[in-house]
Amino acid sequence: MTHAVPSSTPSVTPNFFGLSRSRLAERLAGLGVPGFRADQLYSWVYRKHERAAERMSNLPAVLRREIGAVCDLHLPATSVHSSSDGNTHKFVLQLADGARVESVSMRTARRLTFCVSSQVGCALMCRFCATGLMGLQRNLLAHEIVAQVVTMGDFLGWQDDRFNIVFMGMGEPLANLPHVAEAIRILHDDRGLNIGARRITVSTSGLVPQIRELGAMGLQVGLAVSLHATTDALRSELMPVNRRWPLEELLAAAAEYGRTVGRRVTLEYTLIGGVNDSPDDADRLAAFARRLPSKVNLIPYNPVPGMAWKRPTPEAIDAFAGRLYPHAPAVTVRNTMGGEIWAACGQLGGLSPDA
Q: How many CB atoms lie within 10 A of CB 158?
Protein backbone atom coordinates (compact mmCIF):
# COMPACT_ATOMS: atom_id res chain seq x y z
CA MET A 1 0.00 0.00 0.00
CA THR A 2 1.03 3.62 -0.45
CA HIS A 3 1.14 6.41 2.12
CA ALA A 4 1.77 10.12 1.62
CA VAL A 5 4.27 12.08 3.71
CA PRO A 6 3.25 15.76 3.82
CA SER A 7 5.64 18.41 2.56
CA SER A 8 5.58 22.11 1.73
CA THR A 9 7.25 24.15 -0.97
CA PRO A 10 10.89 24.77 0.02
CA SER A 11 12.26 28.29 0.43
CA VAL A 12 15.38 29.73 -1.18
CA THR A 13 17.42 29.69 2.03
CA PRO A 14 20.03 26.95 2.65
CA ASN A 15 18.48 23.66 3.63
CA PHE A 16 18.90 22.90 7.33
CA PHE A 17 19.69 19.24 6.71
CA GLY A 18 22.83 20.13 4.77
CA LEU A 19 24.22 22.45 7.43
CA SER A 20 26.76 21.19 9.92
CA ARG A 21 26.33 22.67 13.37
CA SER A 22 29.36 24.93 12.85
CA ARG A 23 28.05 26.18 9.49
CA LEU A 24 24.64 26.80 11.05
CA ALA A 25 26.31 28.77 13.86
CA GLU A 26 28.20 30.85 11.29
CA ARG A 27 24.99 31.60 9.43
CA LEU A 28 23.25 32.63 12.63
CA ALA A 29 26.19 34.82 13.62
CA GLY A 30 25.99 36.55 10.24
CA LEU A 31 22.43 37.51 11.11
CA GLY A 32 23.40 38.75 14.57
CA VAL A 33 22.23 35.63 16.45
CA PRO A 34 24.56 34.00 19.02
CA GLY A 35 26.12 30.76 17.81
CA PHE A 36 24.80 28.69 20.73
CA ARG A 37 21.37 28.89 19.11
CA ALA A 38 22.70 26.36 16.58
CA ASP A 39 22.91 23.79 19.39
CA GLN A 40 19.32 24.52 20.32
CA LEU A 41 18.11 24.24 16.73
CA TYR A 42 19.96 20.94 16.29
CA SER A 43 18.33 19.66 19.47
CA TRP A 44 14.83 20.66 18.37
CA VAL A 45 15.13 19.17 14.90
CA TYR A 46 17.24 16.05 15.48
CA ARG A 47 16.49 15.15 19.10
CA LYS A 48 12.90 16.33 19.55
CA HIS A 49 12.01 15.91 15.85
CA GLU A 50 10.31 19.29 15.78
CA ARG A 51 10.37 21.48 12.66
CA ALA A 52 7.68 24.04 13.48
CA ALA A 53 9.68 27.07 14.62
CA GLU A 54 6.79 28.49 16.62
CA ARG A 55 7.03 25.50 18.97
CA MET A 56 10.79 25.90 19.63
CA SER A 57 10.08 27.53 22.96
CA ASN A 58 13.63 28.36 24.08
CA LEU A 59 14.41 30.36 20.93
CA PRO A 60 13.79 34.13 20.91
CA ALA A 61 10.46 35.08 19.39
CA VAL A 62 12.14 37.10 16.63
CA LEU A 63 14.23 34.10 15.58
CA ARG A 64 11.18 31.86 15.57
CA ARG A 65 9.40 34.33 13.31
CA GLU A 66 12.36 34.79 10.99
CA ILE A 67 13.69 31.20 10.87
CA GLY A 68 13.03 31.12 7.14
CA ALA A 69 15.82 33.65 6.64
CA VAL A 70 18.24 31.30 8.38
CA CYS A 71 17.45 27.89 6.92
CA ASP A 72 14.85 25.82 5.14
CA LEU A 73 13.37 23.16 7.42
CA HIS A 74 11.28 21.39 4.79
CA LEU A 75 11.78 17.82 3.62
CA PRO A 76 11.12 16.66 0.04
CA ALA A 77 7.65 15.50 -0.87
CA THR A 78 7.65 11.72 -0.47
CA SER A 79 5.54 8.71 -1.34
CA VAL A 80 5.95 5.49 0.63
CA HIS A 81 5.40 1.96 -0.64
CA SER A 82 4.97 -0.74 2.02
CA SER A 83 5.53 -4.48 1.80
CA SER A 84 2.62 -6.70 2.75
CA ASP A 85 4.30 -7.74 6.01
CA GLY A 86 4.98 -4.11 6.97
CA ASN A 87 8.71 -4.72 7.52
CA THR A 88 9.99 -3.00 4.39
CA HIS A 89 9.17 0.48 3.09
CA LYS A 90 10.41 2.15 -0.08
CA PHE A 91 10.52 5.95 0.02
CA VAL A 92 10.42 7.89 -3.23
CA LEU A 93 11.60 11.45 -2.61
CA GLN A 94 10.74 14.19 -5.10
CA LEU A 95 13.67 16.59 -5.10
CA ALA A 96 13.51 20.33 -5.74
CA ASP A 97 14.62 20.00 -9.37
CA GLY A 98 12.06 17.30 -10.10
CA ALA A 99 14.49 14.40 -9.83
CA ARG A 100 13.37 11.36 -7.83
CA VAL A 101 15.49 9.25 -5.52
CA GLU A 102 14.61 6.10 -3.61
CA SER A 103 15.63 4.80 -0.20
CA VAL A 104 14.50 1.81 1.86
CA SER A 105 13.87 0.94 5.51
CA MET A 106 14.07 -2.71 6.55
CA ARG A 107 13.14 -4.11 9.93
CA THR A 108 14.13 -7.55 11.16
CA ALA A 109 13.89 -9.12 14.59
CA ARG A 110 17.44 -7.93 15.31
CA ARG A 111 17.74 -4.49 13.74
CA LEU A 112 16.33 -1.60 11.77
CA THR A 113 18.34 -0.58 8.70
CA PHE A 114 18.05 2.47 6.47
CA CYS A 115 19.38 1.97 2.93
CA VAL A 116 20.35 5.42 1.64
CA SER A 117 21.06 6.67 -1.88
CA SER A 118 23.95 8.93 -2.87
CA GLN A 119 23.15 9.74 -6.52
CA VAL A 120 20.18 10.03 -8.84
CA GLY A 121 20.95 7.06 -11.06
CA CYS A 122 24.46 5.66 -11.47
CA ALA A 123 27.22 5.87 -14.07
CA LEU A 124 28.89 2.53 -13.39
CA MET A 125 26.49 0.40 -15.43
CA CYS A 126 26.73 -2.83 -13.43
CA ARG A 127 24.99 -5.31 -15.71
CA PHE A 128 22.62 -6.76 -13.12
CA CYS A 129 21.43 -3.54 -11.41
CA ALA A 130 18.29 -1.57 -12.23
CA THR A 131 19.84 1.74 -11.14
CA GLY A 132 22.55 1.40 -13.76
CA LEU A 133 19.90 1.39 -16.48
CA MET A 134 19.08 5.00 -15.54
CA GLY A 135 22.55 6.33 -16.18
CA LEU A 136 23.79 9.10 -13.92
CA GLN A 137 21.56 12.15 -13.60
CA ARG A 138 23.44 13.91 -10.81
CA ASN A 139 25.05 13.63 -7.40
CA LEU A 140 22.90 14.18 -4.34
CA LEU A 141 23.76 17.09 -2.06
CA ALA A 142 24.40 16.49 1.63
CA HIS A 143 20.96 17.79 2.64
CA GLU A 144 19.28 15.41 0.18
CA ILE A 145 21.13 12.49 1.77
CA VAL A 146 20.35 13.49 5.36
CA ALA A 147 16.73 14.14 4.35
CA GLN A 148 16.34 10.47 3.42
CA VAL A 149 17.28 9.41 6.95
CA VAL A 150 15.02 11.99 8.59
CA THR A 151 12.11 11.11 6.29
CA MET A 152 12.40 7.42 7.14
CA GLY A 153 12.73 8.15 10.85
CA ASP A 154 9.68 10.43 10.78
CA PHE A 155 7.57 7.83 9.00
CA LEU A 156 8.55 5.11 11.48
CA GLY A 157 7.99 7.41 14.45
CA TRP A 158 11.60 7.23 15.64
CA GLN A 159 10.71 4.03 17.46
CA ASP A 160 14.28 2.76 17.36
CA ASP A 161 17.17 5.22 17.64
CA ARG A 162 19.73 2.43 17.23
CA PHE A 163 19.13 2.00 13.50
CA ASN A 164 21.93 1.27 11.04
CA ILE A 165 22.62 3.25 7.88
CA VAL A 166 23.99 1.61 4.75
CA PHE A 167 24.95 3.63 1.68
CA MET A 168 23.80 0.88 -0.66
CA GLY A 169 20.91 2.58 -2.41
CA MET A 170 20.98 4.33 -5.78
CA GLY A 171 24.39 5.43 -7.03
CA GLU A 172 28.05 4.90 -6.19
CA PRO A 173 28.72 6.62 -2.84
CA LEU A 174 32.45 7.08 -3.40
CA ALA A 175 31.78 8.87 -6.70
CA ASN A 176 30.04 11.51 -4.55
CA LEU A 177 32.42 11.34 -1.61
CA PRO A 178 32.45 15.04 -0.57
CA HIS A 179 28.67 15.18 -0.11
CA VAL A 180 28.47 11.67 1.37
CA ALA A 181 31.19 12.51 3.88
CA GLU A 182 29.48 15.78 4.85
CA ALA A 183 26.19 13.95 5.34
CA ILE A 184 27.93 11.37 7.55
CA ARG A 185 29.41 14.14 9.69
CA ILE A 186 25.97 15.72 10.12
CA LEU A 187 24.37 12.38 10.99
CA HIS A 188 27.21 11.61 13.42
CA ASP A 189 27.05 14.95 15.29
CA ASP A 190 26.56 14.23 19.00
CA ARG A 191 24.13 17.15 19.33
CA GLY A 192 22.05 15.76 16.48
CA LEU A 193 21.08 12.19 15.61
CA ASN A 194 24.39 11.01 17.10
CA ILE A 195 24.68 7.97 14.83
CA GLY A 196 27.87 6.12 15.68
CA ALA A 197 30.41 5.30 12.98
CA ARG A 198 29.96 1.59 13.66
CA ARG A 199 26.32 1.90 12.60
CA ILE A 200 27.22 3.40 9.21
CA THR A 201 28.50 1.42 6.22
CA VAL A 202 29.55 2.81 2.84
CA SER A 203 29.39 0.46 -0.13
CA THR A 204 31.51 0.79 -3.26
CA SER A 205 31.73 -0.97 -6.59
CA GLY A 206 35.49 -0.55 -6.45
CA LEU A 207 36.75 3.05 -6.76
CA VAL A 208 40.23 2.42 -5.42
CA PRO A 209 41.51 6.01 -4.97
CA GLN A 210 38.34 6.99 -3.14
CA ILE A 211 38.59 3.96 -0.84
CA ARG A 212 41.96 5.29 0.25
CA GLU A 213 40.56 8.83 0.51
CA LEU A 214 37.70 7.62 2.72
CA GLY A 215 40.17 5.80 4.96
CA ALA A 216 42.22 8.98 5.36
CA MET A 217 39.17 11.01 6.41
CA GLY A 218 39.03 9.45 9.86
CA LEU A 219 35.28 8.80 9.72
CA GLN A 220 35.74 5.19 10.91
CA VAL A 221 32.69 3.97 9.02
CA GLY A 222 32.35 0.43 7.71
CA LEU A 223 33.30 -0.39 4.13
CA ALA A 224 31.44 -2.86 1.92
CA VAL A 225 32.97 -3.88 -1.41
CA SER A 226 30.60 -5.02 -4.15
CA LEU A 227 32.68 -7.90 -5.48
CA HIS A 228 30.20 -10.12 -7.37
CA ALA A 229 32.86 -12.09 -9.26
CA THR A 230 36.14 -13.86 -8.51
CA THR A 231 37.94 -13.44 -11.85
CA ASP A 232 38.81 -10.24 -13.66
CA ALA A 233 37.28 -11.52 -16.88
CA LEU A 234 33.84 -12.07 -15.36
CA ARG A 235 33.96 -9.04 -13.09
CA SER A 236 34.85 -6.78 -16.02
CA GLU A 237 31.85 -8.18 -17.89
CA LEU A 238 29.47 -7.68 -14.97
CA MET A 239 31.03 -4.48 -13.60
CA PRO A 240 32.88 -2.27 -16.11
CA VAL A 241 34.61 -0.43 -13.24
CA ASN A 242 36.84 -3.52 -12.91
CA ARG A 243 38.55 -2.62 -16.18
CA ARG A 244 39.96 0.47 -14.44
CA TRP A 245 40.68 -1.08 -11.03
CA PRO A 246 40.96 -4.88 -11.25
CA LEU A 247 40.58 -7.31 -8.39
CA GLU A 248 44.16 -7.22 -7.09
CA GLU A 249 44.15 -3.43 -6.78
CA LEU A 250 40.69 -3.44 -5.23
CA LEU A 251 41.47 -6.12 -2.65
CA ALA A 252 44.72 -4.36 -1.70
CA ALA A 253 42.86 -1.09 -1.12
CA ALA A 254 40.17 -2.88 0.89
CA ALA A 255 42.79 -4.58 3.06
CA GLU A 256 44.49 -1.23 3.64
CA TYR A 257 41.16 0.32 4.64
CA GLY A 258 40.44 -2.49 7.09
CA ARG A 259 43.83 -2.06 8.74
CA THR A 260 43.48 1.73 8.86
CA VAL A 261 40.09 1.82 10.57
CA GLY A 262 40.44 -1.45 12.51
CA ARG A 263 37.24 -2.94 11.09
CA ARG A 264 36.37 -5.93 8.95
CA VAL A 265 35.48 -5.14 5.34
CA THR A 266 32.28 -6.68 4.00
CA LEU A 267 32.65 -8.49 0.68
CA GLU A 268 29.26 -8.32 -1.01
CA TYR A 269 28.63 -11.07 -3.54
CA THR A 270 25.46 -11.26 -5.61
CA LEU A 271 24.81 -14.87 -6.56
CA ILE A 272 23.61 -15.12 -10.17
CA GLY A 273 22.44 -18.54 -11.27
CA GLY A 274 24.87 -20.26 -13.62
CA VAL A 275 27.14 -17.21 -13.77
CA ASN A 276 29.17 -16.86 -10.57
CA ASP A 277 27.90 -19.61 -8.28
CA SER A 278 30.23 -22.52 -9.08
CA PRO A 279 32.36 -24.40 -6.53
CA ASP A 280 35.47 -22.78 -8.03
CA ASP A 281 33.91 -19.34 -7.47
CA ALA A 282 33.27 -20.26 -3.84
CA ASP A 283 36.85 -21.40 -3.37
CA ARG A 284 38.29 -18.23 -4.90
CA LEU A 285 35.94 -16.05 -2.83
CA ALA A 286 37.04 -17.83 0.35
CA ALA A 287 40.67 -17.20 -0.57
CA PHE A 288 39.95 -13.50 -1.09
CA ALA A 289 38.16 -13.29 2.27
CA ARG A 290 41.14 -14.81 4.09
CA ARG A 291 43.48 -12.16 2.69
CA LEU A 292 41.97 -9.31 4.66
CA PRO A 293 39.91 -8.75 7.78
CA SER A 294 36.53 -9.45 6.22
CA LYS A 295 33.11 -11.01 6.25
CA VAL A 296 31.22 -12.28 3.21
CA ASN A 297 27.62 -11.27 2.54
CA LEU A 298 25.96 -13.45 -0.09
CA ILE A 299 23.06 -11.78 -1.93
CA PRO A 300 20.84 -14.04 -4.03
CA TYR A 301 20.06 -12.14 -7.21
CA ASN A 302 16.83 -10.12 -7.19
CA PRO A 303 15.11 -10.08 -10.62
CA VAL A 304 15.02 -6.84 -12.59
CA PRO A 305 12.59 -6.35 -15.51
CA GLY A 306 14.33 -6.63 -18.85
CA MET A 307 17.36 -8.48 -17.52
CA ALA A 308 17.95 -12.15 -18.28
CA TRP A 309 19.90 -13.01 -15.13
CA LYS A 310 18.41 -15.68 -12.87
CA ARG A 311 18.35 -16.22 -9.14
CA PRO A 312 20.06 -19.48 -8.13
CA THR A 313 17.92 -22.25 -6.70
CA PRO A 314 17.76 -22.50 -2.90
CA GLU A 315 19.85 -25.67 -3.17
CA ALA A 316 22.54 -23.86 -5.16
CA ILE A 317 22.61 -21.00 -2.67
CA ASP A 318 22.98 -23.43 0.22
CA ALA A 319 25.71 -25.35 -1.59
CA PHE A 320 27.69 -22.18 -2.31
CA ALA A 321 27.38 -20.95 1.27
CA GLY A 322 28.21 -24.40 2.63
CA ARG A 323 31.42 -24.51 0.63
CA LEU A 324 32.42 -21.09 1.99
CA TYR A 325 31.62 -21.66 5.68
CA PRO A 326 34.66 -23.76 6.64
CA HIS A 327 37.14 -21.52 4.82
CA ALA A 328 35.97 -17.88 5.00
CA PRO A 329 36.21 -15.85 8.23
CA ALA A 330 32.45 -15.14 8.39
CA VAL A 331 29.60 -15.76 5.98
CA THR A 332 25.99 -14.56 5.91
CA VAL A 333 23.24 -15.00 3.33
CA ARG A 334 21.11 -11.89 2.94
CA ASN A 335 17.41 -12.40 3.42
CA THR A 336 15.59 -10.77 0.51
CA MET A 337 13.24 -8.04 1.69
CA GLY A 338 11.02 -5.75 -0.35
CA GLY A 339 11.10 -7.59 -3.65
CA GLU A 340 7.35 -7.18 -4.11
CA ILE A 341 7.69 -3.38 -4.06
CA TRP A 342 10.94 -3.30 -6.07
CA ALA A 343 12.92 -2.31 -2.99
CA ALA A 344 15.36 -5.22 -2.79
CA CYS A 345 19.09 -4.98 -3.51
CA GLY A 346 19.68 -4.05 -7.15
CA GLN A 347 16.07 -3.05 -7.84
CA LEU A 348 16.05 0.66 -6.95
CA GLY A 349 15.18 2.91 -9.85
CA GLY A 350 13.23 0.11 -11.51
CA LEU A 351 9.47 -0.17 -11.74
CA SER A 352 7.40 1.10 -8.84
CA PRO A 353 4.60 -1.21 -7.77
CA ASP A 354 1.95 1.28 -8.90
CA ALA A 355 3.85 2.89 -11.78
A: 15
**What is the number of domains present in the chain?**
2
- Residue 11 domain flag: no
Annotated catalytic residue, options 102, 144, 172, 268: 102
Q: What CATH number has the domain bearing residue 63?
A: 1.10.150.530
Beta strands in 83-235 (DSSP E): 88-94, 100-107, 112-115, 119-121, 136-139, 164-167, 200-204, 222-226
Residues 169, 207, single domain; the answer is yes
Which distant-in-sequence residues (6+ apart) come within 8 Å of 71 by Cβ? 13, 14, 15, 16, 19, 24, 27, 41
Query: Which of 115, 122, 126, 345 is labelled catalytic?
Result: 345
Domain match, 220 and 240 both: yes
| Dist. CA 354–CA 268, nearest whole Å | 30
Q: For residue 156, what are the domain limits?
A: 77-341
Mean pLDDT by 10 residues, the chain (355 residues): 46 88 95 94 96 94 93 96 94 96 92 96 92 92 98 93 93 98 98 96 98 97 98 98 98 97 96 97 96 94 87 96 92 84 77 49
Is this model's pTM higher than 0.85 or not? yes
Helix, strand or coil, per DSSP, at residue 186 = helix
Q: Is 102 one of the catalytic residues?
A: yes
Q: Which residues contact 23 (CB under 8 A, 6 or more apart)?
A: none
